[in-house]
Amino acid sequence: ACSSKYVLSQVHPMWQGPLAVPGGDRQSPVDIVVRASVFDSELKPLVNNYDPDTCQQIWNNGYSFLVEYDDTTDKSTLKGGPLQDKFRLCQFHFHWGESNAWGSEHTVDRKLFPAELHLVHWNSDKYSLFEEAVMEDNGLAVIGVFLKVGKRHEGLQKLVDALPAIRHKDSVVEFNRFDPACLLPSNTDDYWTYHGSLTTPPLTESVTWIIMKQHIEVSHDQLAVFRSLLFTSAEEDVQKSMVNNFRVQQPLCGRTVRSSFS
Ligand SMILES: NS(=O)(=O)c1ccc(C(=O)O)c(S(=O)(=O)NCCc2ccccc2)c1
Ligand SMILES: [Zn+2]
What we know:
mainly beta, two-stranded parallel ribbon, 262 residues, binds 2-[(2-phenylethyl)sulfamoyl]-4-sulfamoylbenzoic acid
């Protein structure tokens, strides 16, 4: 039962209605219409090289929880796929719903998944700081992985066990030796890719999105722990559970989604 202090309201004002950027014609997320995606044989397999030792902390930033990596050197990198340059991993986070019926940001033929993982990387060949890259056309590369409810994900459990310690907004705990590669599906050769934006403010159109065709499975209980997080800080009178922290799909505006598989 919720005590009076923990009256949980489900929908956080920030997420009500689409946050459209005036004039933005490369916004994310989008619905991936499989039949309209174009196979591109030039698309290469992804090459990720993550060093678990660069994992630093996990924190609740008031709309998701982020696992942050030391991106001061090229230790955890992504290249290949649709990318021309080398990108450094800076953080990963998730988006999820209040129920298993929805929660993902991207959809596939309008199919919603209960959650979506985003691994955020920035172009370290062209820029020296994330803050610079985030404002540039080819500055960021985000890998998206859909989550489905099924068997327990052993690799995720270490992360789930850390969440009670960051229940409130702005709480941080040290988090080490986590290899984000364990969250990738077994097949990373099949993906869709398109040019879009951050799905959170400042919504800059600097992202090469790489959406995995194969999903990963997590257990119902693991996802329930995501929903036990709060949007609100410990001081606030009314606590709001962190759910539905996804942006609504945006218009494609003539963009083509390419596929690495036929
Ligand atoms: N869904 S998404 O991949 O687009 C995304 C979501 C959240 C964040 C974040 O900063 O929390 C990010 S972020 O790490 O790219 N930061 C964006 C906000 C930001 C801009 C400039 C400097 C610091 C933070 C991305
Ligand atoms: Zn995201």
